[in-house]
Amino acid sequence: MINWESIIYEINKASKDFEKLQVKSTSIEPIHPRNEFIELRQDLIKARDEIFEKHNLDNANKLDYSFDLLFGLEVYQIFNEDIAFTNRVATNDDVWRYLSICVIPDIVHSRFSLNADHYYKITKRIWLKTIWWYIHLSWRGNKKDTYEILKDNSTDTILQLVERPGIGYYKEMYRELMFQYTNYEDKSRDLFRRALKLNTARLLTISPELVEGGIQGYVYNLFETAK
Amino acid sequence: MTLIQSTNQVSLYRQIDSNMIEAAGIEVSTPQFFYNTSEGVKEIELGEEFDNVLTINEFDTEWSPKENDLTVKQKFTFANPSVLFGDKGVTMNDNKIGLAVHIHSKTSGNQKKINFGSQINTQNKMEVQFEYNFPKDSIRGIIGMDFFMYLQDIVETRTYHANQIGMRLSAEDLSNLIIVVDGEGSAFPITEFNEKNGPLWILEKKWADATEDIFDSSNVNLSLNIVHPLFEQIKGGKTKAIRALMGDIMVQAMSMLIQQVLIIEENTLDAVDESISNSILAVVKYWVTTFEVDTTSLFTIMNSLRRRLDHEMLGGE
């Protein structure tokens, strides 16, 4: 059983271990997570392999949003209550750093080479963390429905949504926002950006749950004003 | 009519101010905190002068955020609710005033607002009991709970009254609670230096732009002198006096930073770039919001911070 609470992995330690990572021809070394993480690593590698095969990504030059979304959905399913992965664990940056550098650095590498920002250096840019939170803040109750509402988005969407933690994510409102967003055409992503900026301003004085129409009405109004 | 200015908005409708709170006989009880154990529900005993900052382990060393849930209860009494209604009140007689709480925690990655009761126009004394449970293994760091009143239902209105459902009616919050679950808030980078006969601590400002530069020791350097006679004691934190000293160092450091960033450098809190969550301005904003700091002057900054944090800093024996 994984003891998430015992992971202590602050930036200096992460940095030292990151420097030791070496890219070999078919692997990254060293990868020696604690025993209790071996099964988790296997599950994550298996999920990654299945995605690669199904979407023919072995031949891709570069991985992009579609991998973020597909792998993110798998990560969200794997990191659940069965392995005691709770909200408290998801808000612990030590955990995300440890997972990125000690458990699946090879998967992170396939997405971002050896860009330290996405492993540990900039906490809001730790890739694994951003995709988990992206799915969490958009979750429709199951993988399929969540995929449907997110498939046409981009890495910019992830950034806009996840990199605004403010005084805490407004989870229920964000889930409604991601759901209603599918009703709008937004190739340039400008509408999404505008809606989120407007939301930041409005939250200072308006309570989404308490207005007429509640969260649904609030979000609808946000998009209608921003478009 | 009261013109209320807060952050960057001016509300042109009447709100419930301290006079009206007194006239309506609105009282908020001392909160109560409980949690479930294998032996049943246990209450966390508070000190006599509880100041609404609950550093849990200071009161109950057995409680842990991972193993235990936490229930918060608080009672709101309205002795003369009818004062709030009518032409001289904040809303008309047949409307409804809602009671709500804003629960927010950056460290737990969540915020939400919940209605927990209503107040109608009546001659009777009214009581509303608030109760909320945080499941075990869900929260981390610091949680803020701000209680307020808002317009819940409208039948009739006046030009000087709030006219939309959801509009805030209480000028100030009815009550604020801060719950410290992990014993340390936003981690403050602290370094060490070596200076014989030097001061116990120094604070250095090294940043160029508070809106962009990160809140870390390269930009904000709070440093303790390892050869100062009190250094070992400060590190050990064994007595109330020593903990109070360290706490006061933190209050002074935070105050200086807030003053520098907001008053001297004239940054505004809404200039925070939400995409840089740990910029110096973002951290200052978090402190100001969570601890409700009065940013008028260095004196009000320090006094309001001390009011919020003083008890917490003393710690438990």
Short description:
The complex is a heterodimer of chains A (227) and B (317). Chain A is built from 12 helices and 2 strands.
Question: How would you describe what is shown here?
Answer:
The complex is a heterodimer of chains A (227) and B (317). By secondary structure, chain A is mainly alpha-helical. In chain A, 56% of the residues lie in helices and 2% in strands. Chain A has 2 domains: 4-155, no CATH class; 164-227. Chain A has helices at residues 11-20, 38-54, 65-78, 87-90, 93-103, 105-112, 127-136, 143-150, 155-162, 171-181, 190-202, 214-226; strands at residues 22-23, 28-29. By secondary structure, chain B is of the alpha+beta class. Chain B has 2 domains: 18-180, Distorted Sandwich (Coagulation Factor XIII, Chain A, domain 1), CATH 2.70.50; 190-314, no CATH class. Helices cover 22% and strands 29% of the residues of chain B. Chain B is built from 6 helices and 15 strands. Chain B has helices spanning 18-23, 56-59, 231-236, 240-264, 280-290, 298-314, and strands at 4-6, 9-11, 26-28, 32-37, 40-43, 53-55, 70-78, 96-105, 110-119, 126-134, 142-153, 175-180, 190-193, 201-205, 220-225. In chain B, strand 1 and strand 2 form a beta hairpin. The chains are: A mainly alpha (227), B alpha+beta (317). The interface between A and B is large, with 33 and 40 residues.
